[in-house]
Each structure stands twice: as structure tokens, then as C-alpha cells.
Write a structure and sequence with these properties.
This protein folds into 2 domains: 124 residues, 2-Layer Sandwich (Chitobiase, domain 2); 351 residues, Glycosidases (TIM Barrel, Alpha-Beta Barrel), CATH 3.20.20. Helix content is 29%, strand content 17%. The protein contains 15 helices and 19 strands. The protein has an 8-stranded parallel beta barrel, surrounded by 6 helices. A 7-stranded mixed β-sheet has the order 1-9-6-7-5-3-4, with helices on one face. Strands 2-8 form a two-stranded antiparallel sheet. The longest helix is centred in the middle third of the chain and has 18 residues. It starts with 9 loop residues before the first strand and ends in a 15-residue tail after the last helix. The relative contact order is 0.12. The structure holds ligand TNX. Ligand TNX binds next to loops.
Length: 504
């Protein structure tokens, strides 16, 4: 059976034709802008024991990567959503991936990698087939909270590779929260000098220098994944309120916080703090926007329960205006829809349930009514930090996951939802895409993150990429089982859920 996740738009098999034999020293032909994609494919094949060589267009190469469009040199870091469509052709003689843009070419190579065995030290047989593929939604994200626990750059790069294989194209980094501030800001140095020290419990803190974040962004961009940075405002700001007393209404620094409660911190809307708060917003959002080449800037907006409704609307207006002034498109959690003065094109990230809890649906519709769009992250199905229904051995031996979002989330539930069926009145085009957040209150290590994320991130990837319509959970579980050997080979500590018929 064929093993492509997410399911491609069309797949035509020709079982009567003679299979292709891929030797252990395959040539990969790629010219010009296709070359870096070929180099990445070669590195992946090398990781599986083959000895490929990348050549300029050459008839002898068994793998050919070709760009067909005039925009062939554009990448995900440009100010547009890349064209990710591609075709993959396997004949008895050759493998050809064609795409109008490099992003699609890269996506096609990920499909090819899924079709190849994990051990290429011996020659492999590939069936003759034709894949014609393109995503349903332009934004298919995974978020990682690097505040509640901090993850060094190498951990994030490993995660990026695993997400790239699933054709995820956005990595949302939750960079600030009550427990810590994780990104260097030159104009406000104490955000990290003071605000990055701790995490949840007695876990160590940490932060990314601008160079660190630059390495993450560059690595992601090579794989056509856009990094969306989030500075969570006006709530979830205890780390900043701890580092800078002048950001507090009373001018007194808050204590450092290492718990997991939410909703107690807020920037001040008081007129006496207007100058310093607006300067803070301008400086921080300006520096973060300058660091990230992608089109989006996430400003949080969730759970500001200690901010009055009036102050919240005032602060969100100022926050989103400062974010929009950087030239980025603003994203916020759906609560920002209570502010009726949002910049044009603002995106609301919906994190209520499949059955919306008031006023979430109204807030989302308000954003759409102002010309904005929505990212769907329903907590009861898309959240990766919610625990599994079964108790599985975990990498660290301690329990992982929270269960506030309507109890545990099964693999079938993570797969069986439709983004357009949640908030009434939204058209398909109102939905920018889907995202799975992974909050890290219980995840101390990247192995913990992997256990929570995989295989459920594969479900999110298919909800975002593959055509709407009937999803057969049993058939999907079969395909996901085929990812197991690749995850084993690359050291991904996925959860061996009983819902998936893992091989071996
Ligand atoms: C709510 S969901 C949060 C996070 C927490 C998470 C889990 C959302 C937008 N905010 O701050 O980490 O619950 O406790």
C-alpha cells in the first residue's frame, strides 16, 4: 500500500509497468534555483545510507528536479504565500519532480522520501506512479511554547525536519509569557538579562539571541517553513513586568513566576504609563519584525483576565497598530476580535472548541467582517499538549499532557475535524489555515515534545493539506504507521498509540 502523509490531491499508479530500481549512488539533476532543494534531498538520502551526487542537468541522473514557472526562484521568506504545488512522476527509468516554485519542488521531495525505504544502503524498488499535488490551505502550522520550558536551537532544528516531512509550512514560536522572555531585544536588554532566568518549576530558563533565532529562521526557510514569532500581549507578560518596573501601573516590579496558572498579568492601560508602554510596544515589535523575514507577526491577546474589557480593547488597539506599523500582517488569538479597531487584514487564531464557547465565534466573525482571516486551532482536537487517552510509556517516565480542553485527545479526534464546520458563517476563503499549538507546561525535553506531537501533528498536516471530504481514520492510521520507521531512524520519540497499526 502507498504511504503518503498528507494524502496527495491525485495519485495514479501503474502497477503493470516495471518498477524503477534506485541504486545506491543516484544522480540528482537540478539546475539554478533548484540546486539547494537537490542538496537537501541528497543530504536526506545520505542520512539513509546512499551516496548520491547532485549534478547540473544530466541525462544520466535518475532523479530530476525541475522548476517550471517564471517565479521559480521565489521562496517562503518572500512576502507572499509560496506556490507549493508539484508533480512527482516515477517511470521505470526516472524520478521527476516538477514545480513552478522551489517550495513545491521541496514538498515533492518530501513525498519522494516517504516513498523510499529508510535504508538505502542497498538498491530500492519504486512503483511507477504519478502524483499531482497542491495544498488546500496556505497556512499549516505547528506552535511550540519555548517559555514554559526552553528548548535550545538544535532541538528546534530537529523538530523542523520532522515537520517538513509532513509538509507543515509554518513554525509559530511562542517566545514570551509569564514565566520567561525568550528573545533578545537590544533596546530593552533586561527582558532577557532579568526576564529569561526561569521557567516552570525549577527548570532552567534561557533565551534565543538574535543570531540563534536567525539560525532557526534560516533552517526553516531552506525547508520552506515560515517562522511566525509571537510576543504575547497584553496578558501573559509577567516576565516583562518583572524585568521592567515602569511597565506596571504601580511602578513596582512583579515577582518572577514559575507556576502554570494563566490570566493574572497585564500591561497597564493607565495614561501615566502610555508613553513607556507604547515605546515598549514599538521597540519590541519593531525589533522582532526586523528579525523575521516572513509576512506575519503574532501579538497574542489571549486570556487577559486581569485586564478590564475597556483596557483590553484600548491595549489591543495600540498593540495591533504597533505591530501593523512594522509592515507585517498581524495575528492574534481570537479574543482580539473584541476590539473593533484592528488593522486591515488582521488574522484571528481560534482556540475555542469544535462547539464554540461564547463569545469566541462572534469574535472570529468580527475579525472576518473587517476583512481579516482565521487560523483554526480548536483546542479539543488540534492542541498537541493535551494528553492522550491511553497511558503510554513516556520518554522521561513522567506523565505528559494537560486535559483541560474537554478531556484527552485521541488520534482519531485529532484527524476527524473539518476547519470550515466550526464557526458558522465562514467561507473556505475566510480560513487562512490550521495550526496545532504545543504548550509545554508538562514537556521538559524535546523527547517529551515529540511524544506529544507525533503522530498527532500528522493529522493536523492532513487536515490542512488534503482535500475536504471523507476521511477514513483506519486508512489514515495505516498510512501513518508507515512513518514509524522513518521516525525511529531519525530518533523521533513518537507515541506508539494503539490506534495506529505500527509495523514491527
Ligand atoms: C491556554 S490556549 C493558553 C496557554 C496555556 C494553555 C495550557 C491559549 C491561547 N493560551 O497560555 O499554556 O492554555 O494551559
Amino acid at each position: 500500500m502507498l504511504t503518503i502523509v498528507p494524502r496527495p490531491r491525485t495519485l495514479r499508479m501503474s502497477p503493470d509497468e516495471e518498477a524503477l530500481t534506485l541504486g545506491t549512488t543516484p544522480g540528482i539533476a537540478a539546475a539554478g534555483a533548484a540546486r539547494p532543494v537537490a542538496e537537501l534531498l541528497a543530504a536526506s538520502l545520505r542520512g539513509r545510507g546512499a551516496a548520491p551526487s547532485v549534478v547540473d542537468a544530466d541525462d544520466a541522473a535518475v532523479i530530476v528536479l525541475e522548476l517550471t514557472g517564471p517565479d521559480g526562484s521565489r521562496g517562503a521568506s518572500d512576502d507572499h504565500i509560496a506556490d507549493e504545488s508539484y508533480t512527482l512522476d516515477i517511470t521505470s527509468a526516472a524520478i521527476t519532480v516538477s514545480a513552478p516554485e522551489r517550495a513545491g519542488l521541496f514538498r515533492g521531495t518530501q513525498t519522494l522520501l516517504q516513498l523510499l525505504p529508510v535504508d538505502l544502503a542497498a538498491s530500492a524498488q519504486l512503483p511507477v506512479l504519478h502524483v499531482d499535488d497542491a495544498p488546500r490551505f496556505g497556512y499549516r502550522g505547528v506552535m511550540i511554547d519555548v517559555v514554559r520550558h526552553f528548548f535550545p536551537v538544535a532541538d528546534v532544528l530537529k523538530l523542523i525536519d520532522a515537520l517538513a516531512l509532513l509538509k507543515i509550512n509554518v513554525l509559530h514560536l511562542h517566545l514570551t509569557d509569564d514565566q520567561g522572555w525568550r528573545i533578545q531585544i537590544d533596546s530593552w536588554p533586561d527582558l532577557t538579562a532579568v526576564g529569561a532566568a526561569g521557567a516552570v518549576g525549577d527548570a532552567p530558563g534561557g533565551f534565543y539571541t538574535k543570531d540563534d533565532l536567525g539560525r532557526i529562521i534560516a533552517y526553516a526557510a531552506e525547508r520552506f517553513i515560515t517562522v511566525v514569532p509571537e510576543i504575547d500581549l497584553p496578558g501573559h507578560t509577567n516576565a516583562a513586568l518583572h524585568a521592567y518596573p515602569e511597565l506596571n501601573a504601580d511602578g513596582v516590579a512583579r515577582e518572577a513566576y514559575h507556576g502554570i496558572e494563566v490570566g493574572f498579568s497585564s500591561l497597564s492601560a493607565s495614561p501615566e504609563r502610555a508613553e513607556v508602554t507604547d515605546r515598549f510596544l514599538r521597540d519590541v515589535l519593531g525589533e522582532v519584525a526586523a528579525l523575521t523575514p516572513g509576512p506575519w507577526l503574532h501579538v497574542g491577546g489571549d486570556e487577559s483576565w486581569s485586564t478590564s474589557a475597556e483596557d483590553y480593547r484600548d491595549l489591543v488597539r495600540r498593540i495591533t497598530a504597533a505591530a501593523a506599523a512594522t509592515g507585517k500582517r498581524v495575528i492574534g488569538w481570537h479574543e482580539i476580535g473584541s476590539c473593533d479597531d484592528l488593522p486591515a487584514g488582521t488574522v484571528a487564531q481560534y482556540w475555542s472548541y469544535l462547539q464554540p464557547v461564547a463569545p469566541a465565534a462572534d469574535q472570529v466573525r468580527a475579525v472576518v467582517a473587517h476583512g481579516g482571516q482565521v487560523i483554526m486551532s480548536p483546542a479539543d482536537v488540534a492542541y498537541l499538549d493535551i494528553r492522550y487517552p491511553e497511558d503510554l510509556p513516556t520518554p522521561g517516565g513522567y506523565a505528559l499532557g494537560l486535559d483541560w480542553a474537554d478531556g484527552p485527545t485521541s488520534f482519531a479526534a485529532a484527524y476527524g475535524w473539518e476547519p470550515t464546520a466550526i464557526v458558522e458563517g465562514l467561507a473556505e476563503s475566510d480560513i487562512l489555515g490550521v495550526e496545532s499549538p504545543l504548550w509545554t507546561e508538562t514537556a521538559l525535553t524535546i523527547a517529551d515534545v515529540e511524544h506529544l506531537a507525533f503522530p498527532r501533528a500528522a493529522a493536523l498536516a492532513e487536515v490542512g493539506w488534503s482535500a475536504a471530504g471523507d476521511r477514513d481514520p483506519a486508512e489514515f492510521a495505516e498510512r501513518v504507521a508507515s512513518l514509524g520507521p522513518g521516525w525511529d531512524a531519525t530518533g523521533i520519540r513518537y507515541a506508539r498509540l494503539s490506534e495506529v497499526p505500527w509495523r514491527g
